[in-house]
TrEMBL record:
Native organism: Leeuwenhoekiella polynyae
GO BP: any one term: isoprenoid biosynthetic process
Name of one Pfam family that matches: MDD_C
Name of the protein this chain belongs to: Diphosphomevalonate decarboxylase
GO molecular function terms attached to this record: ATP binding; carboxy-lyase activity
Signal peptide residue numbers: none
Domain Mvd1 C-terminal: residue ranges: 200-330
InterPro entries the UniProt entry points to: GHMP_kinase_C_sf, Mev_decarb, MVD-like_N, Mvd1_C, Ribosomal_Su5_D2-typ_SF, Ribsml_uS5_D2-typ_fold_subgr
Key word Nucleotide-binding present: yes
Keyword Oxidoreductase part of the UniProt annotation: no
Key words, A-Z: ATP-binding, Lipid biosynthesis, Lipid metabolism, Lyase, Nucleotide-binding
Lineage: Bacteria, Pseudomonadati, Bacteroidota, Flavobacteriia, Flavobacteriales
Diphosphomevalonate decarboxylase-like N-terminal domain segment(s): 14-173
PANTHER family cross-referenced by the UniProt entry: DIPHOSPHOMEVALONATE DECARBOXYLASE (PTHR10977:SF3)
Amino acid sequence: TQALTSQSVSYASPSNIALIKYWGKHGVQIPKNPSISFTLDTCKTTTKLSYVKREKVTDEYELKVILDGKHKPGFEPKIHQFFGRIQSYLPFVKDYVFTIETSNSFPHSSGIASSASGLSALALCLVEMEREMQPEMTLKHFNQKASFIARLGSGSGCRSLEGPLVVWGEHAEIKGSSDLYGVQYPYEIHPVFDNYQDAILLVDKGEKPVSSTVGHNLMHNHAYAASRFEQAVVNLSNLIPILKTGDLDGFVRLVESEALTLHAMMLTSNPYFILMKPNTLHIIDKIWEYRRETGIPVCFTLDAGANVHVLFSDIDKEQIHEFIKNDLSKYCQDNRYIFDSVGSGAIKL
Ligand code: PMV
């Protein structure tokens, strides 16, 4: 009998924060509008995928999820569903028994979604397995395929593989852009955005009242959906010269408007819902007051939750860190926040 050897592959993949938001999808995780995000650096998931050839292949996948060294059967149905979606693109997933050992750099129950980093790390491991079987695969093909597979697990996760900026969704002015995978932003970025900072203020770690899956679905039959999708296209066009010239005032206006529009879509869904908390608004107020008083172009953005991402340039880092420690941290749950910055994407370990 043939001895079965267990092999493994590992990746660390970061989270990302959208500047132009993806909200609304159709088909199998196809976005209704293009989006663009900063890839983060510190907030990431590390995943080791071990695999052993199965003796008998059945229609059921065989997998085990281990989070921080503990078996978590509760996460397995989601991965079974993901494997079902990717089966036709990576047919070998039914030929192995998988052990997925994963850990996040950010605290659990922090309200930071681990799905983008987690699913992109797993997608990279799986496509790496395919690359081992097809060594002629080009890097471009590898990146596209891994992002494509990540998208099927977590839409925004397809923007986590590269950095510093990734576009997902077809846009006439972004060469190579696609609804099927994320691509690295292909144009000039002014040095003022080098090592751009993102401080994540953890306002609420509670369970969200409405999941992003439900939120995306509420964009079907939404009164303002069509104009929102058009606006995102225009905003992405407008962001190109902002990034090129380092127009931070334009950046602040566009990014904050996108965040508030995302939440405006929630407020005007049917049924309507609110993911911001009172402290989300307190923080926004304080940021505006600080910006008025200091003239420093610091701004906020939000994802589908109550936490606030504070964005600022590297040269203002010391002052803004003081501002956060002294003034904003009191609006955070347990005074918690994470200082992160723009990163360059996933790495093979
Ligand atoms: O990838 P999902 O389904 O969790 O949706 C993410 C949606 C936002 O974070 C709100 C916006 C975005 O573009 O990341």
